[in-house]
Amino acid sequence: MEVTDLRIALFSGNYNYVRDGANQALNRLVGYLLNQGAAVRVYSPVVEEPDFEPTGDLVHVPALALPGRAEYRAPVRLPGRVRKDIAEFAPNIFHIASPEILGHRALSLARRWNIPAVASVHTRFETYPRYYGLTFLEPLVVAVLRRFYRRCDAIFAPSESMAQILREQRMSFDVGIWSRGIDRGIFDARHRDLEWRRGHGIGDDEVAIGFVGRLVMEKGLDVYSDAIDQLEKRGVKHRVLVIGEGPAREWFERRLPNGVFVGFQKGADLGRAVASMDMLFNPSITETFGNVTLEAMAAGLPVVAARATGSQSLVDDGITGRLVRPGAIEAFADALQLYCEDDAARKAAGAAGCAASERYGWDQVNQALVDGYLRVVRQRVDGTSGPPRSPVP
């Protein structure tokens, strides 16, 4: 079987209506698949004004706005017209990008039609409840996720550290790696722009501690602001530069009244903003890879991050940045202080990070997933593998 024989039905709760790292990776994947001669059809909610144009053929599935997070849509069913479209497309593999209602319905359909199904893991959903005072729900979320992923032929994590977590959680017997790449035309230290910094009130000699991402509490905004408070108490000179938008922006601005908030950036503007920081501070534990971490490394910046999935596979502690126990405010402040006050250490870590980022190319990582597709389809045709027919305890 060759890549040109693949017919992939891709199911996503958010393919292009809100821009984030997961859906940008999916769009890059679809572009790569189409260029390689595979057939792809995407099933996801469609809105009138999406954040960006979709790659490939996109079929709308019904969805409702999420309570409290109206920018996101929750697919509620897989109607007859969509099932008919899938049947006419005649896929030989399903790729499910999110374990919500659409993903469950698609997986059930794949099993009914005896079509192999794989899932890609993009975030640690089981960690979300703790940011909203619902930590007691985590075991239930893990159980639901396990039931879903165990029904797939294989699952793919974006980093080895995340893959290990999935194995320890007994999510699947077949865990592969679909990593992430970097666009070196955008993320490069040469895009650093002192005039841009000055325009936002950041002096040439000021050390800018950056944040990049959606402004939502599950990104660790509380830990970020608490660590910055410690720097203030210690009298460490710094500036905070926040790149991104989201429902928690007002809260974050109140917590960091001296921070520079430049809003959502994309393309060359994003590359310039990242390169114009002096370090990235990423306290989040929800990422399975950490696109922003890799982008900062490619721009020649040291990274201070939580010792968690994603960052753990990217940051070489003491070489390209510092890894800190999640939630350890004082330790985060220590690492940030080091890079604020030691120019040589900051530059050395940034240079090492840039060098380390060179092994991440989009074609290579997408081809690894294509190889995974082909393996799963061949194994199903040969009758040598498939998901358990009943839940495994």
Automatic annotation (TrEMBL):
Keyword set includes Ribosomal protein: no
Presence of the UniProt keyword Nucleotide-binding in the record: no
InterPro entries, sorted: Glyco_trans_4-like_N, Glycosyltransferase_grp1
GO molecular function, one term: glycosyltransferase activity
UniProt keywords, alphabetically: Transferase
UniProt domain Glycosyltransferase subfamily 4-like N-terminal: residue ranges: 20-183
Domain of life: Bacteria
Protein's name according to its UniProt entry: Glycosyltransferase involved in cell wall biosynthesis
